[in-house]
Amino acid sequence: MIFLQRNRLATLKLTANPVIFTLAASIFLALAYNATFWNRFFEVTGGVSYKNIPFYVATFLIMVLVFNAFFTAIAFRPLIKPVLTLIFCTTAFAAYFMHRYGVRIDAAMMQNVIETNAREVADLLNWRMAMFFLTLGVVPSIIVWRTKLTFPDVRRNLLIKCSVIGLSLIAAIGLTVAFYKHFAPTFRQHRDLQFMLTPINYLWATNSYLKRKLGRPKVVAPLGTDAVKGALWHEKTRKTVTVIVLGETARAMNFSLNGYARNTNPELSKQAGLVNFTNVQSCGTATAESVPCMFSSLGRNNYSDSKAKSQQGLMDVLSHAGFDVLWRNNNSGCKGVCDRVEHEDMSKPVAGNALCTDEECYDEHLLDGLPERIRSSKKDMVIVLHQKGSHGPTYWKRYPEKFRQFGPECATSDLQECSSEAIAATYDNTILYTDHFVSQTINMLRRMEKNEGIDASLIYISDHGESLGENGMYLHGAPYRFSPIEQRHVPFMVWMSDSFRSQFAIDATCLAARSSQMLSHDNLFHSVLGMLNIKTSVRNPALDLFHACT
Ligand SMILES: [Zn+2]
User: What is the architecture of the domain spanning 228-549?
Assistant: First the structure.
């Protein structure tokens, strides 16, 4: 039995035998960290009623028995306490994100977590998270370390262990069989439940992520090495510059260009030569998934992280065709897409630069020195500007003071502290700033066209959308199959100068007529090649937006 000798945590001394100790840890894990799972489980099974009680008790017991079998297997003196501490601390974070942000944990989410950077992590910290960590991570860990385990002798210990593991598993299997007709439809119809059951969700997700990552081939296969500039380039003397603004976390429905009631596009709506596509779906719901997918030739149905990283992508094909390719980054990185072309990390704050705070730089910093860089290039250019955009939950940090136009502002990373009006208003300020940034980029290209005789175009597309509290969900990264439309519907627009359009024989009316057509990230790779009249066997005309309009 567990004996509490004193009642203050600092001087707490407990004694327990390992069988009781692992069972207590299993019960605690099933109850304290799984509120999100239980809420959803009750919801999809019709709610708490006498009829459902046996099923719920069976589910709880199976969870406890499976956890118990695992902890018993590792219940050796040097191992059990460090493992439990690690699990309690990590699961506290998982439980916090599931509970506060409606996050679901799958392999793509784990990739997102593992490949994030320190500043994005710092953005998430707040006192409520610290309290969660203290209560569910630190306190249980202290109790674990303050408990003196009384192990029997080796032979007896092994015998007890084998019996406990055997009995736990037999009981778990027996209960699963007995309630199979309840379990099968529940977990089959509501597959999202598997992403809520912690710590199984993140252990399983980390395992799949690592399997994918380690199985990734080291050699990158060439792609589109046959790419050349097509007939429309013959005898062309003016330099051509195309900028792709890669947005971050911008959802289409908050753009007034897409019918949003608030005027979040005061500048872009006045830009002549802009075509806005209203019906565009992202490839993934997180940067680590969407960015490699949209710059690959694979398309969403064929995409996998390992496939995308084992072959070259759009940036490489443009290099093969003879362009000077540049990637400027104000994000957590290009996720492998820009590895073989020139790339500049502009996300670090620059002292004395008015476009930077102590922590980060606003997206306009991506334009610093860009005209000079374009001028110095002897070749035609394609430039990607990878924004920080609307990255949350600290939306208020993404825009300069001047763009704090909608309110009230939500200035905390704990979004549930704010009203839905405040969250939307703060998010809308980020869209307003993106509107300004993209418009400024177009203005820069216009000036260079006028003064220096370049032909210019710009594409703006976001990597994925964002949930702002709809159905209790916040942020992004939901498993694609269960993701809400807010996380998948992205803005996409194309601007071309008159000289660019006539040079590449693009019919703007035809393009505008396609503006409400169903499109997706699958179109990006092929449309950039089509717009720039690049001949290569890897361009699929069916996915090239410009094909029918040239
Ligand atoms: Zn993103």
Answer: 3-Layer(aba) Sandwich (3.40)
